[in-house]
Design a protein that fits this description.
single chain, alpha/beta, Rossmann fold, 2 domains, 11 helices, 15 strands, TIGR01456 family HAD hydrolase
Length: 351
């Protein structure tokens, strides 16, 4: 019965988007039956992508690990990391402060940003900018570069790529930049404003995330709250006018929708081996969609499920990650609540 219904469903032009942490993997360990769920879709050419608020590495590197862990071929064109939409900002900003783990420098440069400064470069320039940094001198030397004329050319934007590891120093450096005089290092503007001196972007706003520990851990959303609170204190109570992408924002769901449409076209034209992708401009919604339904499979009601709900997609909430059974969902209404990702896929295909 399952396969009869499955083949009937496969002709209805449905698609799937999967969160990763708490849905397919828990830390680096595959969640039981996740491999079988993706294999079912891959073998029957039903389009799916991975849509995650995780990041800090190149799409091809993340996909390579997931493909090996789950034993399912996945193309780098099938994943949207939290910062993947930053590709749409490459022609907008010249010199950026790329905040996150040391790996984000490579990501930003691979995207095409011309002048990339990592926060560790600023610590190397002057250690007393963040005197209580948790990084040793050796760690700073290993992760940083000496940037000529670092203080002679303005920064155009701050882009937070993933959760940084040295919060005290990173908060200081970011607040210096967004309260500077026109983006110049070692300066401070004279007026208070809700508008920062240079734009700041956060790649997600997840307060919590699930790893191998028993309890949920703070994520980039918590880091953002600290930045916003301190900015307000420094600006006479005014609230920071920042930019957020990632789930549950419409901007990220629009971007992911474009990626799904592009992948469907590659399946139809048998060009899934391609390495080129038609990327939309940031914030541009698809003009039309080939899909009757798209199902978002996630573990976090506050990002995966509410994002799909507001965007018009259906959703499956799994119990293998952030969500705890019986926790109040209030205004969040998943299409279904299931034990795991395989049950989600099976139920959709059996409808």
């Amino acid at each position: 019965m399952m396969f009869k219904r499955f083949f009937q469903t496969s002709r209805k032009n449905i698609a799937f988007a999967f969160d990763i942490d708490g849905v397919l993997l828990r830390s680096k360990t595959p969640i039981p039956r996740a491999s079988e769920a993706l294999k079912l879709l891959h073998e029957n050419e039903i389009p799916f992508i991975l849509l995650t608020n995780g990041g800090g590495q190149l799409e091809k590197d993340r996909v390579e690990f997931i493909s090996d862990a789950l034993d399912v071929p996945i193309s780098p064109l099938q994943i949207v990391l939290s910062h993947t939409p930053y590709k749409g900002l490459v022609n907008k900003y010249d010199k950026i402060l790329a905040v996150g783990t040391p790996s984000v420098r490579r990501v930003a440069e691979d995207y095409g940003f011309k002048h990339v400064v990592h926060q560790s470069d600023i610590l190397r320039y002057r250690r007393d900018i963040a005197p209580f940094s948790g990084l040793s001198d050796q760690q700073i030397l290993e992760s940083s570069r000496e940037i000529p004329d670092l203080d002679k050319k303005r920064f155009d934007a701050v882009l937070v790529f993933n959760d940084p590891h040295d919060w005290g120093a990173d908060i200081q450096i970011i607040l210096d930049a967004i309260n500077s005089e026109n983006g110049m290092l070692n300066t401070i503007r004279n007026e208070n404003s809700s508008k920062p001196s240079i734009p700041i972007y956060f790649s997600n706003q997840d307060l919590l995330w699930a790893n191998s520990y028993t309890l949920n851990r703070f994520g980039q959303g918590a880091f953002r709250l600290l930045i916003r609170k301190l900015y307000s204190e420094l600006n006479d109570g005014l609230q920071l006018d920042d930019n957020t992408i990632g789930k549950p924002t419409k901007l990220t769901y629009d971007f992911a929708h474009h990626v799904l449409i592009d992948w469907q076209e590659k399946i139809n034209s048998q060009t899934t081996h391609s390495t080129t992708q038609r990327l939309p401009s940031l914030g541009l919604p698809p003009k039309q969609t080939p899909f009757q339904d798209v199902y978002m499979i996630g573990d976090n009601p506050a990002s995966d499920i509410i994002g799909a709900q507001l965007y018009g997609w259906k959703s499956c909430l799994v119990k293998t990650g952030v969500y705890r059974e019986g926790a109040p969902l209030k205004h969040i209404k998943p299409t279904m609540i299931v034990e795991d990702v395989y049950e989600a896929v099976a139920k959709v295909l059996n409808q």
